[in-house]
Design brief:
The protein is α/β, with parallel strands linked by helices. Among the domains are: 192-213 and 224-354, Alpha-Beta Horseshoe (Leucine-rich repeat, LRR (right-handed beta-alpha superhelix)), CATH 3.80.10; 357-363 and 372-477 and 493-542 and 551-566, no CATH class. It has a 17-stranded parallel sheet. Strand 11, helix 16 and strand 12 form a beta-alpha-beta unit. Helix 3 (39-45) runs antiparallel to helix 4 (50-60), helix 13 (281-288) packs parallel to helix 14 and helix 14 (305-314) runs parallel beside helix 15. It is flat. One of its GO terms (cellular component) is SCF ubiquitin ligase complex.
């Protein structure tokens, strides 16, 4: 953040407007205004009048980040306004003594504190700062890698704190003394979350290592029975969250830690190195911590599809799975569909192995799903449609049962997505013609596939963030010969069922392909459907491509596009602002201020929606 105010505004600049003063006396209004402004802007605006200065002073001083601004002028005001600071992140060069000096120490209302590395010289100041903040909730510590240093004073201060909930060991510690962690866990009665980050070689003698044999429950002698009893005494059921990000550790260490925390609900193994799993690891982990609901295994070495699937099956109460840049594939996704009815969030960015069929099953079965991110997974919409028909229940005559809900055009489609509570969706949809048989291409043309997708999206009425890429693959390299299907291997009953299914698909898709969008908006403009096959599937978010079908998405706030041809003009923007009243951002369209059409769009937005954000995209989804 920018340097906070060093002095209050002069009395000559104070406004006499009582109305202004009354408005800025309402905390909710002040908070709403501050959310739309940068910290630098707030700092400058607060100098305008005394009312603004008084209202925004707590906001300006709420957070102090890594004190690059700890200069003479700043340090003086820090001492004066330290009572307003709630979040303090210190760097190695910051002078902590300013905050703890007698007779009137500053910064006594902190809720989050990030300390630099503790050494012999600054340990006493760190202890004082912790002790003078009784409401501290989050604390981050780092230690100099010197076993000769006695950190007992700091450890006791942390362990005796009665409000601390999250403790983080950070800043590339190479080692961490077991006794240090043991003491904190035994003394603290409020600690719930334990975080380890960027630790190169974590615990040469890991916590619980001395009781490894006991944790296996193989007590065969009196000595081992005593070890089991001692292990039970070492449990810390208060810990519900364990985060081990960018930590070099072993499978046994994770299991030993899990045995200490039987009430664990959140486990993060993000970016773990030198970590390799045996086949029985998921079951052993579930035995020790059976209540895990949040699991992050993103960027973890040796995290293959089979391992993730086994983990998923061992934790049926799983609500969040973060598995980006892993071997997450069909086995894992099918396990989620079958075993985790309460799944709310799945992040599978840059994961390999997923197929269109699996995504269809997920969207159809997981009713509790609120967030899905699989940016690098190309969902072949015709394959998704085939899977939807294939999974339909069969009537006695062998025909797929009709779904109870129809599209906006009155056509009943199968495989209706059940995740009506979905709030964030990030997917790549494509029409991959080379991967389709000739029969599939005839039954599901690009226009029908696009219409099917739009109809499904229109049912997600709680959607707030939509990130989408659409791609059309031509038939380069695909021969015109009839493809050989597996029908020859089917039994007569199976062949009959397949024939009925194909007939149903051909009938329904032909109805979806009818050039009738049932949209008054599109008819007003008199635009015709694009007839070029190479463009029929691309969702250009134009009126001619079926934009009106998405009118039910009233909660949409952010639209991120990639691989979308520029077809959004003034008519489309006006339609979006009318039907999506909360839309505040579109990213990925390439705007040229020199083009007349784009000039009209930008001018209209500036006049009617001044807070609207249009940004160009680089065809890559933003990790943030």
């Amino acid at each position: 953040m920018s340097s906070p105010l060093s002095s209050s505004p002069s009395t000559g600049s104070t406004t006499n407007s009582s109305a202004c003063n009354r408005v800025f006396a309402i905390p909710n209004i002040v908070e709403c205004i501050s959310c739309s402004l940068e910290s630098k802007t707030i700092t400058i605006a607060a100098r305008v009048c005394q009312a603004w200065y008084t209202a925004w002073l707590p906001i300006i001083w709420h957070t102090i980040d890594c004190g690059k601004q700890w200069e003479d002028n700043f340090t003086q005001t820090l001492v004066r306004h330290g009572e307003l600071v709630r979040i303090l992140r210190c760097s190695r060069g910051d002078d902590i003594r300013l905050l703890v000096s007698d007779p009137s120490p500053s910064c006594r209302n902190l809720i989050t504190l990030v300390l630099p590395k503790t050494t012999v010289i600054n340990q006493s100041d760190h202890v004082k700062l912790i002790q003078q903040n009784p409401n501290l909730r989050n604390l981050s510590l780092a230690f100099r890698d010197d076993p000769s240093i006695d950190y007992s004073n700091l450890i006791h201060a942390v362990g005796d704190h009665r409000m601390l909930r999250r403790l983080t060991f950070d800043d590339e510690n190479k080692t961490l003394q077991v006794e240090m962690l043991e003491t904190i866990l035994e003394r603290s009665t409020s600690l719930r979350e334990l975080y380890f980050r960027r630790i190169g070689f974590f615990l040469n003698h890991p916590i619980g290592y001395a009781y490894a044999s006991a944790s296996k429950l193989l007590a065969a002698s009196k000595t081992e029975e005593q070890a089991v009893s001692e292990q039970e005494e070492k449990k810390f059921p208060r810990i519900t969250s364990l985060c081990m990000d960018d930590v070099a550790c072993s499978q046994d260490l994770i299991l030993n830690l899990a045995s200490r925390f039987p009430s664990l609900e959140r486990l993060s193994l993000h970016l773990n190195a030198e970590l390799y799993f045996t086949e029985d690891f998921p079951s052993r982990l579930a035995q020790r911590s059976p209540h895990i609901k949040y699991l992050d295994v993103s960027k973890t070495e040796d995290m293959e599809d089979s391992t993730i699937a086994a983990l998923v099956r061992c934790f049926p109460g799983l609500q969040t799975l973060i598995a980006s840049q892993t071997g997450f594939g069909d086995m894992s996704l099918n396990a989620l569909v079958e075993c985790c009815p309460n799944l709310e969030e799945l992040d599978a960015r840059d994961a390999y192995g997923l197929e269109s069929e699996s995504i269809q099953r997920l969207l159809k079965k997981c009713q509790a799903l609120k967030s899905l991110n699989a940016w690098d997974t190309s969902v072949n919409v015709p394959k998704m449609i085939m899977e939807a028909y294939r999974s339909q229940s069969m009537t006695e005559e062998g025909h797929p049962a009709l779904p109870s809900t129809s599209t906006s055009s009155g056509v009943a489609i199968p495989g209706l997505w059940a995740c009506h509570g979905l709030e964030s969706l990030t997917l790549n949809f494509c029409y991959d013609r080379p991967s389709l048989t000739n029969q599939e291409q005839r039954m599901i043309p690009p226009a029908s596939a696009r219409r099917y997708l739009l109809e499904q999206l229109s049912r997600l009425t709680k959607l707030r963030n939509l990130s989408i890429r659409t791609t059309y693959f031509d038939d380069y390299g695909n021969n015109d010969e009839d493809d050989e299907d597996d029908d020859d291997a089917d039994t007569p009953e199976e062949a009959k069922g397949s024939e009925h299914m194909l007939q149903r698909i051909q009938k329904d898709m032909s109805l979806l392909a009818v050039d009738n969008l049932n949209s008054t908006e599109s008819s007003k403009e008199g635009k015709e459907e694009d007839t070029d096959d190479s463009e029929l599937f691309n969702i250009t978010f134009s009126m001619s491509s079926g934009l009106a079908i998405l009118s039910p998405l009233k909660q949409l706030q952010s639209l991120i596009l990639a691989g979308v041809h520029h077809a959004v003009g003034l008519d489309e923007i006006q339609w979006m602002c009318q039907h999506w009243p909360r839309l505040a951002r579109i990213e990925g369209l390439y705007w040229d201020e020199d083009w007349d059409e784009d000039k009209l769009v930008l001018s209209w937005l500036q006049e009617n929606r001044p807070g609207f954000i249009l940004t160009e995209g680089d065809d890559e989804e933003d990790d943030s």
